[in-house]
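Now for one record.
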Amino acid sequence: MESSNRLGDVEIKDPQAMRALAHPVRLAILDRLRRHGPATATELAPDVGATPSVTSWHLRHLASFGLVRDSEPGPDRRRRRWETAAHGFRFETPQDEADEEGRSAARLLSQQMFLRHADLPSRWAAEVEPGLGPEWAGQAGLASTRLVVSAEELAAIEDGIERVLAPYITRDPDERPADGRFVQLLRYVLPEGAEEQTGESL
């Protein structure tokens, strides 16, 4: 079952693009632009751990793969402002086992993304959760579910989740509720190895 990309993400299929994105500064740039909106390389630099000139170089590289683009100019039209080209991006590990380049590139990008977000839950628990009101704290948290499905069924589950999320992600900013706030949804989909399939059934 192929993904319908209901969220309008940039789809990355080129192994070269995957490898280019598997860089801490580039992932940080995308996160910063998604979180805070358009910015110049100089504005981004302190948050992404690079000088303005290096940040500008990374931005141009991201633009070459369609991940960022020019935004509306700010007050100073001499300073180039950037924005993300979509709400997010997506990529898939090639199913063709002969495509070692594609599989290797997808694995590298996956590893960098896992590393980038590895401590996010613990930081949220320590820094954000204590300050949430009861109505938000009651909706927060995590769930860990183990189930037995086929690869096709797993794809259908993912598509169903995106079907629920799409109206909220793709709506215009002026349609958001007045009391709304940003919520980070982390979806880890971790098929187990063949050696873990024995033992007690669910």
The CA atoms of residues 6 and 162 lie 6 Å apart. The mean pLDDT is 89. Residues 120-202 form one domain. The chain has two domains: 1-118, 120-202.
